[in-house]
Amino acid sequence: MDLTWLLLGLALLLVLAFLVTRYSAWSVRHVFRDLGIETPPSSVFFGHFLEGMKYGIFDVQTHQYKMFKDKKVYGVYEFKTPMIVVRDLDLIKDVCVKHFNNFVDRRVLLNMEPPFHQTLLAILGDHWKKVRSAVSPTFSSGRLKKMCRHIERNAKSLQLVLDARQESGEEVELKEMMSRLTMDTIAGTGFGLDIDSLREPDNEFHTNAQAFTKPNLAVFIVTLMFPFLGKIMESMGIKFLPQKAADFFEKVLDNALRERRESENAGKMHDFLDLMLNAEEHGKEGEACDKHEGVGTLTRNEILSQALVFLLAGYDTVSSVLSFTMFLLAVHPEHQRLVQEELDKKLPLDDSIPDYETVQNLPYLDQCISESMRMFPPGLILDRVCNQEITLHGVRFPKGMPVVLPIYAIHMDPDLWENPKDFKPERFSPEAKESQHQYAYFPFGHGPRNCVAMRLAQLELKIIIATVLRRFDLTPCQKTVYPVQLSSWQLAANDGLWVKPERRATK
Ligand code: HEM
């Protein structure tokens, strides 16, 4: 009898939750009508989410973008949340740069647990400004030069691994290999740690980082549908990100910070850790941000959060661009040859690893990397939230409205890029760039909230690709599948990115 009542109660609760959610979804259907913004047909309950499930995020983004070809913006519903998608490039400039103060924040759907809840990606307003100014100097030219030795060390390691593969005639799946390499590089550039997951398949650092790239999508979807259930699940220990991996990194980061504090090299390495320790001297955990003594002071949680985002934001992004660029060059040998000719001309004729100075002037390699990030940008969309109502180019952005900038669709727009599916590095030659709209290409975002580590990322990309292509020809192999079939949910090739390294005949 008790059980029957319990089940009945539960069923009633579910029906009630469904009705409330359905009603609240109905109650926002007028938003775009009131704003005079068109929106593709959608389900009241799911919004446009089901289309994403059915066709995948890439196709849905480009399809909706094409539907409103002559409009500055259009609207989409993520379940019941209305969001304005900006497709006009001048309006994108206004949102990201000219009227940045109205659009400082990103949407924070699911944040990490303390102590990692204050990453640059997630924090808001003045708090973000303070932390961003403390972190930005990490990527000055002087510091980047010092970080370079870690990139060079890992490039050497990659060279040895590729030597072995080519001797045994094995093919290489680039994404897997580049993920390991990137993790080793981040551990070095960020924390002064020497790890070698390239040659140690079960490296703990790498395994835990991998766990972070496979979050619990069910938690994410349920939170989108019923935000209140997200909080309940969290309190029950059902989390979006794996707690075991978070605990592992908290320990690693605390150890790295402690060892550095006690080391005689503290303050002399000029890397991210030094900078964070320097900022830590004045900050006290628990203080409200406005009570800090000024810009440049950080609490322990702020430091741990930035350290973790350094790991996470730099991992999948850099490894994706490395692997897609090398893959595209393998399937387009004519462009690979041009990169190699440039390397042969500009780099010393020995086996040394290219360094900070030597990769500064490799324009054709730059063009190939840019073209690869146009076709396969790791950040598919950017978002901002309007914090103060504003009307721009006749479009009213109400306070609190999420604003989406569809990077992938813009990079694939045939009106901006002729035959956008073709790999043509010539699009980024100095002459071609002059005729491009400055806001038609933004793999690192735009404006004050763009990628804080763009220069480090570009340095890593150039050193690693130059190291590989100086010594090897990358060629297609039996497992190579081109054109690339992207997964529906993330920037990943369904069939992998397979190539064969062959030692160059000329070297
Ligand atoms: C090719 C590699 C990379 C790409 C394509 C990339 C792309 C991006 C994009 C699109 C954004 C959002 C920008 C915006 O909203 O306007 C971003 C933000 C960010 N990225 Fe990167 N990123 C890369 C590498 C890295 C690396 C190596 C790190 C760290 C070491 C990093 C750390 C961050 C951080 C902390 C933010 C948030 C910045 C803020 O809100 O102030 N990224 N990145």
From TrEMBL:
SUPFAM superfamilies in alphabetical order: Cytochrome P450
Keyword Magnesium in annotation: no
Gene Ontology terms, MF aspect: heme binding; iron ion binding; oxidoreductase activity, acting on paired donors, with incorporation or reduction of molecular oxygen; steroid hydroxylase activity
UniProt superkingdom: Eukaryota
Principal location listed in the UniProt entry: endoplasmic reticulum
GO cellular component: endoplasmic reticulum membrane
Membrane topology: Peripheral membrane protein
Pfam families: p450
CDD domains from the UniProt entry: CYP3A-like (cd11055)
UniProt cross-references to InterPro entries, sorted A to Z: Cyt_P450, Cyt_P450_CS, Cyt_P450_E_grp-I, Cyt_P450_sf, Cytochrome_P450_3A
Cofactor or coenzyme needed: heme
Ligand binding (heme): C451
Keywords (A to Z) from UniProt: Endoplasmic reticulum, Heme, Iron, Metal-binding, Microsome, Monooxygenase, Oxidoreductase
Keyword Endoplasmic reticulum: yes
Subcellular location as annotated: Endoplasmic reticulum membrane; Microsome membrane
Protein name as it appears in the record: Cytochrome P450
Organism annotation: Elysia chlorotica (Eastern emerald elysia)
